[in-house]
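agent: user wants the structure for NAD(P)-dependent dehydrogenase (Short-subunit alcohol dehydrogenase family) from Nocardioides marmoribigeumensis. delegating to structure tool.
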Amino acid sequence: MKNVAGKRVLITGGAMGMGRIYARIAVEEGAAAVILWDLDEGALEKTAQELRQMGGTVHDYAVDVSDKELVTSVAEQVLAQVGVPHVVINNAGIVRGNDYFWETPADLVDAELTMRINSLAPMYVTRAFLPAMIDQGEEARLVNVASAAGFTANPRMSVYAASKWAAIGFSDSVRLELEQAGIDHVRITTVAPYYIKTGMFEGARSAPLLPLLEPEDVCAKVWKAMRKGKPMLVLPKGVLLGETMKGILPLPARDLIAGRLIGVHRTMEDFTGRPAQDD
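agent: tool returned. relaying tokens verbatim.
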């Protein structure tokens, strides 16, 4: 896919942060329609207006992606009103952290919300659109934004890590299912970045080989990977060191290197994030 000119692009969490950047790129490349989903109606309206002023054709929908029935209902509206998306970017996500798991509220409300938005929502959205993307028979892309936390266990973010491990397993498995079924016009890209400099990760620390990432740079790399249909994008490359260590080092040695020498296990100690974020 050389670009998205003349194509329909749907972005969850599209009103702010990374989603807003993806939407801007889509308009700049001449997308036929940019479809924004977001929970924040005020930000959604503002971003949609800005994109229209750039010349984009924008359709905005207030959607809580953790609500399966709502996702299904609004997806049906999109299919009927706008058409089948050629690109779907599952970008919406939340971050919770800085407490040991046993210190989190016993009702686990935040834990359940994190799993619904980070793990289940990509499944809801994918199930709502992927059959139509397959049947349409045109070149299409699905991007699932996970996290490097989906590869590496880390103190003070156990639920977030669990949600992103699930997202990676789901996304890459569906990629293989498409290949096994001989469907080559729809390709899935799983994205696993380290901490990005958005309000979502306010207070998170960098570590040697793992610098905090710039949103514009990450979006540009994700966009390039999406167009190529690249199966997996891991940012930065230093994240892959941990994956290599899993295969060659015993667990105590791996913990020692990641925790004490590299310092990954202390990166969430000062995390604050932003309240009720949905990016």
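agent: one observation worth passing along. The longest helix spans residues 109-136.
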